[in-house]
Design brief:
By secondary structure, the chain is mainly alpha-helical. Strand 2 and strand 3 form a beta hairpin. Helix 4 crosses helix 9 and helix 8 crosses helix 9. The longest helix has 26 residues. Helix content is 61%, strand content 11%. The chain contains eleven helices and three strands; from the N terminus they run H-H-H-H-H-H-H-H-H-H-E-E-E-H. The termini are far apart. The protein has a three-stranded antiparallel sheet with strand order 1-2-3, with helices on one face. The mean pLDDT is 91.
Length: 236
């Protein structure tokens, strides 16, 4: 690989490799590796590094969530982590450093826009994390990764906390075995293009915990759950 390109990538990620073979390995897609092997040349793909990078990614994000969101339950933390480490998220991180520009691809992937394919970009990003980890350890990976991951974590937390009142209420109710939570639409009004629904959140089908309205049944139920949360001391 062109050394100028490697240096350019190192400047973008803010990390200089002690062993540059690691970064070349991380950028080598299986299509390129297979073509090289067919020519009698050795070139390992980044698939094994992707495996390691996935684990490093998970522990860094999980640790950050554990340290910074002490009030969140396991299920909520898992949802946030999933949004931050999914293929779409990783491909977006890769796009920020134009990682596709530096990949070693086979001819077929090259002509089929492999440099822009989310699955290839996300895998290469995980492999890059592994390369940094092998070269210098987890703290260097953390310094590189978190500036990309934290904004998405904060966005996901804002969206989750502002809309998923039903999940929060369900978690509270589940703490008492035998209790059931149901939502009942008690009224529906307005023309078809401007409906208004009113919902009640009920405990054990009879005890009304909260009431809410909305332009859809889902919105009404969410607002009923939001109202019910005030009964348990939550007020956003």
């Amino acid at each position: 690989m062109n050394h100028d390109l490697l240096h350019e990538l190192e400047k973008k990620i803010g990390y200089t490799f002690q062993n540059r073979e690691l970064i070349v390995h991380a950028l080598t897609h299986s299509s390129y590796s297979n073509e090289e092997k067919a020519k009698g040349r050795h070139a390992d793909s980044n698939e094994r590094m992707e495996f390691l990078g996935d684990a490093v990614l998970s522990i860094i994000v999980s640790t950050y969530l554990f340290d910074n969101f002490s009030g969140a339950q396991e299920g909520e933390l898992s949802k946030i982590r999933s949004a931050v480490v999914c293929e779409k998220a990783l491909a977006s991180y890769a796009d920020e450093i134009e990682l596709g520009k530096y990949l070693l691809l086979g001819h077929g992937e090259e002509i089929n826009n492999g440099r822009e394919r989310p699955s290839i970009l996300s895998d290469a990003y995980e492999a890059l994390l592994a390369a940094i980890y092998i070269d210098s350890g987890i703290e260097e990976v953390r310094k590189f990764l978190l500036p990309y991951a934290v904004p998405l974590i904060e966005k996901t937390v804002r969206e989750h906390s502002s809309t998923d009142y039903k999940t929060k209420l369900q978690q509270i109710v589940q703490q008492k075995p035998g209790e059931t939570l149901v939502y009942v639409i008690i009224s529906e009004s307005g023309p078809p293009h401007q409906k208004n629904f009113v919902a009640e959140a009920r405990l054990n089908d009879s005890n009304i915990l909260g009431t809410g309205s909305g332009s859809s049944k889902r919105e009404a139920e969410q607002n009923a759950a939001r109202d019910a949360l005030k009964f348990f001391g939550f007020d956003d």
